[in-house]
Amino acid sequence: PDPDRGGPLGESEAAGGDAAAEGHDLDCVENGLEAVNITGVAEFDLILMDCNMPVMDGWVATERIRDAPGPNQHTPIIAVTANAMKGDR
After folding, report:
1. Which residues pair with 10 in a beta bridge?
2. Fewer CB atoms < 10 Å away: N or C end of the chain?
3. Who has greater pLDDT, 40 or 13?
4. Distance between CA atoms of 62 and 48, rounded to whole angstroms?
5. 57/25 Cα distance (integer angstroms)
6. Which ranges constitute the DSSP H helices of 1-89?
7. Are 56 and 33 in contact (CB under 8 A)?
8. What is the pLDDT of residues 29-64, one digit of tens each?
9. Strand partners of residue 78
């Protein structure tokens, strides 16, 4: 992740493919802990948060981002998930 880019932060490149195609900057992380760390030092316009990330899930990562004073405490965070099975609903 590049802390100087300032665009949306997404958990996977697949989630941000359309955003990048539209000319938006995108930083991707591998897990929730990385999301918490990068949002503590770089400001983003929007955060796409995968609910089921490894190391720290998106629910906990979102709570940490909201609780920590920093540049993204009030940034919109959109929860996303790949859970599409009937039993996941």
Report:
1. 28
2. C
3. 40
4. 10
5. 24
6. 13-21, 32-39, 58-67
7. yes
8. 999 999 999 999 999 999 999 988 889 999 999 999
9. 48
Higher pLDDT, 9 or 69: 69
Tokens of 4: 């100087």
Please tell me the predicted confidence (pLDDT) of residue 71: 95
Q: Say if CB 50 and CB 12 are below 8 A apart.
A: yes
Q: Residue type for 51, please?
A: C
What is d(CA 85, CA 34) in angstroms, rounded to the nearest whole number? 27
Burial per residue of 11-47, b for 16 or more beta-carbon CB atoms within 10 angstroms, e otherwise:
beeebbeebeeeeebbbbbebbbbbbbbbbebebeeb
Evaluate whether 13 touches 28 at the Cβ level (below 8 Å): yes
Number of other residues whose CB lies within 10 A of the CB of residue 80: 15
State how far the Cα of 39 lies from the Cα of 24, in Å rounded to an integer.
17
